[in-house]
Amino acid sequence: MKASVLSFRMAVLCLIAGMLWGLHMAISQDHSAHPAHAHLNLLGWVSLFLFGLYYRLHPALEHDKRAHVQVWSWLVGTVVMAIGVGLVHTGTMAGEPFAAIGSLIVFASVLLFAWLLFRSESASAAVAPAE
Ligand code: HEM
Ligand code: HEM
Questions:
Q1: Which DSSP helix (H) or strand (E) runs through 5?
Q2: Residue 82: pLDDT above 60?
Q3: Closest ligand (CA of 77)
Q4: What pLDDT shows up at residue 125?
Q5: Residue 44's pLDDT is what?
Q6: pTM for this one?
Q7: 32, 39, 85, best to mutate for ligand 2 pocket (most atoms within 8 Å of CB)
Q8: I need a surface site. Which of 27, 50, 63, 85 has the fewest CB within 10 A?
Q9: Could you tell me which of 10, 8, 5, 1 has the C-alpha nearest to residue 79?
Q10: Residue 37: which residues within 8 A CB-CB, separation 6 or more?
Q11: Are 97 and 55 in contact (CB under 8 A)?
């Protein structure tokens, strides 16, 4: 599967989960887990969709294993982080290690994305006509 297709599919699943979480908060009138809902939507839907657009614009990355590792690690990190933050904000402090590990996974994932982006942009600059 192309990295962009994986990103788009996983992003829309995060959006559905994030919106269900938002609806649950709104209906129950208990907004205490809102940071988890916010991060699930912003990392899982917005950021993952943006990664997908970048991969779609750079076909050389579409079948690159490192791009797949980046998307999967971002997804796993986001879900683990959202569960951990949700637990902490609803009073279960046992969620703290999940929030910490999830955050570190997404941070590692974004470093990998930054590296792929810099390499890819250097390659584009090398073939572009002189300005
Ligand atoms: C069915 C759709 C959604 C519902 C019902 C919903 C509901 C909520 C609720 C009840 C809060 C807590 C507000 C508060 O207490 O301050 C909240 C916060 C938030 N939501 Fe949603 N949400 C939805 C979709 C989204 C989406 C799609 C995004 C992002 C793309 C998003 C981003 C955020 C953010 C960033 C916050 C935190 C705002 C803050 O800290 O002030 N939400 N949402
Ligand atoms: C390693 C990654 C990240 C960590 C550890 C992190 C951590 C945090 C923390 C500790 C807060 C304060 C929450 C509170 O006051 O209860 C926060 C708020 C927020 N973060 Fe992040 N963040 C990360 C990535 C991001 C990214 C990538 C985005 C956007 C794309 C984002 C958007 C927001 C927003 C909108 C808020 C305010 C909404 C709220 O109160 O929940 N964060 N973040």
A1: helix 3-28
A2: yes
A3: 2
A4: 86
A5: 98
A6: 0.95
A7: 39
A8: 27
A9: 10
A10: 18, 21, 22, 25, 82, 86
A11: no
- With a cut of 80, say whether residue 130 has pLDDT above it: no
Contacts of 9 (CB under 8 A, 6+ apart): none
Pocket flag, ligand 1, residue 63 (CB < 6 Å): no
List, for residues 92-111, the tens digit of each pLDDT value. 999 999 999 999 999 999 99
Percent of the chain with pLDDT over 70: 97
Locate 66 and state its tokens.
């490192």
For residue 52, name the pLDDT band (cuts at 50, 70, 90). very high
pLDDT value for 126: 85
Ligand 2 atom, smallest distance to 38 CA: 41
Looking at residue 27, its amino acid is I
Reading the block at residue 131, the tokens are: 């300005």
Q: How far apart are CA 39 and CA 41, in angstroms?
A: 5
Quote the crossing angle between the two packed helices 65-89 and 48-57, to the nearest 10°: 170
**Residue closest by Cα to atom 34 of ligand 1:** 38
- 39 alpha carbon to ligand 2 midpoint, in Å? 6
